[in-house]
Amino acid sequence: MKAKKTAVFAALVAGLLLIFVPMYLTLTSSFKETSQITSDFFGLPNPFTLFNFERVFKDGLSMHFINSGIITVVSIALIILVIPMAGYALVRHMQRKKSYQMIYTLLIIGIFVPFQVIMLPLTNLMGKLNLANIPGLIILYLTFAIPQTLFLYTGYIRSVIPAELDEAASIDGCNPIQTYFKIIFPVLKPMHATVLIINALWIWNDFLLPLLMLNRNKDSWTLPLFQYNYQGQYFSDFGPSFASYVIGIVAILIVYLIFQRNIISGMANGAIK
Amino acid sequence: MKGKFLARNWGYLFVVVPIMLQLIFFFYPLLRGFMYSLTNWSGLTRNYDYIGFENFVRIFSDNRFITSIQFTVVFTLALIIGEIVIGLAVALLLNEKIPAVGFFRTAYFFPAVLSTVTVGLIFNQLFNYGLPQIGEWLNIEWLQGNLLASPKTVVWGVIFVALWQGVAMPIIIFLAGIQSIPTDITEAAQIDGANKWELFFKIKLPYLLPSVSMVFILALKSGLTAFDNIYALTGGGPQNKTTSLGLLVYNTAFKTNEVGYANAIAVVLFIIIVVISVLQMRISKKFEL
After folding, report:
1. Inter-chain CB proximity A117 and B129 less than 8 Å
2. Distance between CA B212 and CA B223 in Å, rounded?
3. Which of A103, A140, A252 faces B114 most closely, judged by CB atoms?
4. Whole-angstrom Cα distance, residue A193 to residue A197?
5. Quick check: A100 and A136 in contact, CB under 8 A?
6. d(Cα B169, Cα A195) in Å, to the nearest integer?
7. Alpha-carbon gap: B152 to the closest alpha carbon of chain A (Å)
8. Please, are residues B217 and B225 in contact by the beta-carbon 8 Å criterion?
9. Are the beta carbons of A137 and A209 closer than 8 angstroms?
10. Backbone torsion region of residue B147, taken as left when φ is above 0, otherwise alpha when ψ lies between -120 and 50, otherwise beta
């Protein structure tokens, strides 16, 4: 039994190296001069330099970091404002009315459609509507969050929140809007957390939509878009690129370490349900 | 009067925003996408002609498409098999009672929260500067060049990077599945004398089938529509050897300016995904408990 545990432990340590070595190389490279990265990729920084970080901040990294933050926060706020409301209304009406069943199917069918099918007409449409910018991008995140998020909320409301709760509220004199915001919305808290996590990770890390919507206007680039264009721009002097990866990784690492339990269970909920 | 109106129609009021958004930004472009696939539109001009199914006929004699579908099939199969096998194996290890298991779980899940573009860019540099140096140290000739620059090895490089990040999520799903297996059932089987292989294949695996089919669907979709990490890692090269279907749609539209044709490729991709998903759901329904 003890030998088995040692073997499991050893296998896990070996796997861990595969995760850590690329992270170690990224971190050490960010403190190296570019010439040392090419000549001595695995060694410790010698000399140790903060030049890469100075340079990448001078080139506007903080602006793109803030863009990503604003886009993520506003999109999530809208997602949690708009989608659970619809989920609640659908669950309460679906069994009696066919029209609501149809609406539900219509809203959820996007799960099966690969983005590439709508990519080009959508890019065209957003350009025509003058929405190839940050507000337009936020609208798209809200739209594309609907299928999966709605699916999660309707499942949760159906199984956890009884209709008696609405009746009690209406006897106490609440109209449906008051019932929703005062009673139902707070009870949905566990699902809000799951929805927040899976959507925030997706939106913060997303690349293709910002590439399609924001690529022409440098000031509105998100962090991943900045990192991509930066590597292309400084092809021969890529030390600062490593600094930009480290900033992105450290930011998400901090969030991950603080909320890891919630993140892991949130991702599992989002994928399985 | 106002109160009565609200009481009767609040349901529609609550769903009106999502419906408007889906109609404008999803269904309208979807319809346009199908329409464009029947045109010769370049994306640059105002005018285009309807050319029927010409684009679809062209697809199957187009070398770029054939190379792309070969890569996409290999890549997707590797993702599906790799994510299920490695994901399940690591999840079983992480379910053992060993020291520091919490730390191991935290570390193994971490790649799932990283941006796929960042991961692609980082590995691009590692393949460029890291591996050749190892090759020099060990005096292995094929390692000394950039594996991503050679048409022979590039596919394996791309698969490695996709799995490096891609197995983290399946590990979460499988671990959750393993922990939901009732312990009295596994204990009963052990008392009845089941060895550990019987225990795994006859008791645990049937419980894990829903997780397996979930991972299958996720890996299938991410393989067939792969874009970010490959775009950052190889840009689809060398010699288009790693141009996934997802990337081919993008390149055909924006690099060679054939929006009509690109949409036809996207429609074919759509049909492939729908057919496989429907088949998969039928099959997994048969096997589930």
Report:
1. no
2. 16
3. A252
4. 6
5. no
6. 16
7. 23
8. no
9. yes
10. alpha
Q: Note whether A106 contacts B22, CB cutoff 8 Å.
A: yes
A221 vs B: CB within 8 A:
no
Encoded amino acid at B64, one letter: R
Written as tens digits, the pLDDT of chain A (273 aa) is 678 889 999 999 999 999 999 999 999 999 999 889 888 889 999 899 999 999 999 999 999 999 999 999 999 999 999 999 999 999 999 988 899 999 999 999 998 899 999 999 999 999 999 999 999 999 999 999 999 999 999 999 999 888 888 888 888 888 889 999 999 999 999 999 999 999 999 999 999 999 999 999 999 999 999 999 998 877 678 899 999 999 999 999 999 999 999 999 888 888 765
Q: Assign B218 to helix, strand or coil.
A: helix
Q: Is A48 exposed, middle or buried (0-12, 13-18, 19+ CB in 10 A)?
A: exposed
Q: Touching check for A201 and chain B: CB below 8 Å?
A: yes
Q: What angle do CA A37, A41, A45 make, to 5 degrees?
A: 70
CA distance A187 to chain B (A): 18
Provide the token pair at B92: 């079983």
- Say yes or no: A209 contacts chain B, CB-CB below 8 A: no
DSSP state of B100: T
Tokens 């059932």 found at: B185
Cα dihedral value B33, B34, B38, B40, nearest 10: 0
Task: Tell me if B126 and A25 make a contact (CB, 8 A cut-off).
Answer: yes
Alpha-carbon gap: B129 to the closest alpha carbon of chain A (Å): 6
Q: Are A41 and B133 in contact (CB under 8 A)?
A: yes
Query: Nearest-CA distance from B253 to chain A in Å?
Result: 8
Locate the chain B residue with the closest alpha carbon to A235. B125
Cβ–Cβ below 8 Å for A207 and B277: no
| Closest residue, chain A, to B86 (C-alpha) | A15
| Chain B residue closest in CA terms to A117 | B266
Whether chain B has a CB inside 8 Å of the CB on A258: the answer is: no
Tokens of A214: 């924001």
**Which residues neighbour B10 within 8 Å (Cβ) at sequence distance 6 or greater?**
A89, A175, A176, A177
Cα separation, B22 vs A86, whole angstroms: 13
Pairs of residues, one from chain A and one from chain B, whose beta carbons lie less than 8 Å apart:
237
For A139, the closest chain B residue by CA position comes to B21
By Cβ distance, the residue of A86, A176, A255 closest to B18 is A86
Between CA A16 and CA B221, with CA B177 as vertex, the angle to 5 degrees is 75
**Are residues B117 and A207 in contact, defined by beta-carbon separation less than 8 angstroms?**
yes
Which residues of chain A are within 8 Å of residue B129 when distances are taken between CB atoms?
37-38, 41
Q: Is the pTM of this model over 0.90?
A: yes
Secondary structure (3-state) at B39: strand
